[in-house]
User: What shape does this take?
Amino acid sequence: MKIKESIKPLRPYQPGKGIEEVKKEHQLHHIVKLASNENVYGPSPLVKEKVNDGPIDFEIYPDGYAEKLRLKLADSLHINPDTLVFGSGSEEIIQMICRTYLEPGTNTVMATPTFPQYKHYATVENAEVREVPLLNGKHNLEKMRKQIDTQTRVVWLCTPNNPTGCYISKEELRTFLKQVSKDVLIVIDEAYYEFVFADDFPEAIPLIDAYENVLVLRTFSKAYGLAGLRVGYGVGSKDVITNLNKIRGPFNVTSIGQMAAYFALEDQRYIDRIKAKNVEVRSSLEHFCNQHGLLFDKSETNFLLIHLPTSGITVSEKLLTYGFIVRPGELLGVPNSIRVTIGKKEDMDAFKVALLECI
Ligand SMILES: *Cc1c(COP(=O)(O)O)cnc(C)c1O
Assistant: This one.
């Protein structure tokens, strides 16, 4: 059977090692997964409590408009409910964007390394992918702008960027938006928005009023701790949202996902606590790196990209024997590094000891 030419060079997603697999392989009881930037504390207790006694009829299709969640989220973001689109994770919205805007003969501009799904789905649509190397972990916006031409349909700004954790400042974003034609969709992926403390981090959502070509992506998978339920959203102009909705599957977000996200939004104090704990433990890890001469990228997220004097693959394999699962930088486009999710304080203290043994 013949498949689309563009899909031939792609590889199916390679999942990282699971907790049970590592337990068995290394005969360990306690495994700490620091590989996918999940919330190590889990979601707000309110979510579990409400979802457990929630009146969900499993035999009924989900609300395709996600009305309850939509109204609550619109209220908390101070936006019109019709400027929201929901996805089975923001990952699905990335796929929807590529389907809607990209085709052979068009191109798309992104940083490298950045979140790999932009390139993956753009490739499926047979669009040309223009990658601009990061500069000290940050987007090189000047060079990215120069890559934009009349055939450019989508530009991806991942801020803070995965895997470096660096962000685009308010001033940098404003300058960039002013210089780029409004015919080009600018996707601002803010998957780690809830962790950011920096004063000059831009509020991107209000920019949509002036820039109808901006689409902001957020997710319930990271700070909100709902990665397993797959809920993400986009905020954009009515025009962009209407077009994305044309290709959205009608029931793409499950009933449980909608309900859990709704209650997660109710407990904003929990998110504040997660944010505070995260920065405390991350600072301590940064301090440790400084003490031991390990370089790292300045992160505003719940992960740290640590540069090593040796292969990240080797170090991450050794770390497995101590019960720590991290992501080798080689798989993310940054050789000789590891990307480490910020875990709980006690686990990270043990991690520091193990890391010293492994490098
Ligand atoms: C985790 C992540 C996402 C995807 O999150 P979903 O679980 O699909 O909502 C999107 N962008 C970045 C940069 C991420 O790190």
